[in-house]
Each structure stands twice: as C-alpha cells, then as structure tokens.
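Study both lines:
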Amino acid sequence: MNIIGKVLSLIWRGWFVSVVIINTFIWGVFIIIPLCFREKDFPKAYYFMRIWAKIVFYGSGLSLKKVGFESFESSHPYVIISNHTSMMDIMVMLMINKDPMVFVGKKELKDLPIFGFIFRRLHILVDRKDPQSRKNVYNQSIKKIKENKSICIFPEGGVPDETVFLDRFKDGPFAIAIINQVPLITVTICGLKQILPYAYFQGRPGKVTVKLNSIESTENLSKTDIAVLKNKSREEILNALKHCEAKNQHY
C-alpha cells in the first residue's frame, strides 16, 4: 500500500473509531444501560442495540448485502453461528435478526467501557479456560432459550489471527442446540476481514455480505451427533468463504 493509501486508511480508521465511541456513549449511557436492570426490558434494550449497530455500521461507510434469508423465520428460538473476524460481527448479527437474541462472548468483553457493562448485563460471558464457566454457559443458555430468546455464538472461540482463514470450531454451540432441541442456523460473514484488518494502516469502507448457509434441525439428535454437526457447519462456512473470495466478495 502506498503512502496515499495509508493516509486514507488512517483517516477512515479515525472516523470509524469516532463513530463507535460517540454512538456507544450516547446510545449506551442514555438509552440502553437504563434498560439493563429488569428482565422485562430486554426486548427494548435489544431493539435499541440494533439501532446502535445500524448507525455505527452504516455511519462507518459500510453497506450490507443479505443472501439466502428469504426463508428465515425467527419467531422461535434457535442457535445461530458464524465465522468471527472482528467486533463488527456482533453488529452484523444484530442487524440481521430483529427478535431478541443473546450473545455468548469471551469474558474480556466486560472490560470494554460502556459496551462491556451492557454485554455483562444482557448477554453471557465465558472464560474458556474455566470448566465451571463453560458449564454455566450451558445452564444460562437453557434458561434463555426457555425465555424464547435465541443464542448467538462464534464457534471459533474468538477472533483468529489474520493468517488463519477459518479456525477450528468448539463444541459449545452445537451441544447447546442439540441439548435444547432447537434449530442451528449457520451464517457466513464475508468482507469484514478485508475492511477492518489487524494492520492499523489498512482499512476502508465497503460492502459486507452475510449469507445464510443452512437451517439444521436438531430434532432426535443426541450428544453423539455433535462432531458431525460441527464438521458439517464448518465445511459450509469454509466453502462459502472460499466462494466469496473467488467472486470478489459477491455472491
């Protein structure tokens, strides 16, 4: 990248960070946080989180293309999974699902100003190194699903290194879907890794494509089917990412 490209990327990064900070402060402090203390206010908090996500996403110069969502019906709980490339993935998932959904995220998220408090109050944190914490995720997920809330998990267990195309998947989301006998929805997010890479002098506005790969029933499945379901889902996302790259991010 030449010097002009680096300067333009730096300007865009500065704009992006400003949009995130300003909107997280305004929407978080004055609207979402006051709705974090009563369970009955969760739908309202989720509604405003979606507005926050859209303002930050589109305000950063990004556009979203949805593929395969024509048959998507979110009137009942499910487990939804996707590849993980950045914090913006959470915004994308908020944007594609209007019905209340609970995220499972790593415990480090709680340390983020404002957003960390909101996440800790409304969603599920996990310390992947702590077996008890992982067990609590199952228990909390069961509770949330019984409350008619869906669960969103990134099965790679975090944002992988930029050299990793798609990391190995953890068992968690597949076990949760099977234990609760709810559908598993597999989604691929394409473009964010190129738009918001790790390198500070890279980054740009652009189009993000999100594709619904499949909706898998877990009816009559048991824990012995976790590995098969996990491998099938990873293969779907891997193939979609390869296709996305080959088509220059256009399905």
In short: Residues 3-32 form the longest helix (30 residues).
